Amino acid sequence: PNSAHADEIPIQSRMMTIADIFDALTAADRPYKKAMEATRAIDILQMEVNGGKIDKAIFDLFVDSKSYEIVKPSKS
């Protein structure tokens, strides 16, 4: 935000950014959009990494650990 560099943003905020974007893309309980498949959400996050918008190391950990598979979105 506000053109802040990574070292100016707390690591917790960088981690939550990735989790929040993933959740927003894959959530099944949003009345204004359909849930996106996890693989598509990962592709979108990768584009953000490539554009320098999110932290590559944290994204790689998110993907490599498959932490996004731990909590499955509930179907409403």
Structure description:
The chain is mainly α and 76 residues long. It is 51% helix and 0% strand. It contains 3 helices and no strands. The chain has helices at 11-26, 38-50, 56-65. The longest helix is centred in the first third of the chain and has 16 residues, at 11-26. The chain is globular and about 35 Å long. The model has no long low-confidence stretch (mean pLDDT 89).
Shape: globular
From the N-terminal CA to the C-terminal CA, the straight-line distance is: 33 Å
Strand percent estimate? under 5%
In terms of structural class, how would the helical and strand content be classed?
mainly alpha
Low-confidence stretches: none
How is the quaternary structure best described?
Answer: single chain
Helix content: 40-55%
Structure in a nutshell:
The protein has 76 residues and is mostly helical. The protein is 51% helix and 0% strand.
What topology emerges from the helices and strands here?
Elements: H1 11-26, H2 38-50, H3 56-65
Helix pairs in contact: 1-2
Features:
mainly alpha; 76 residues; globular
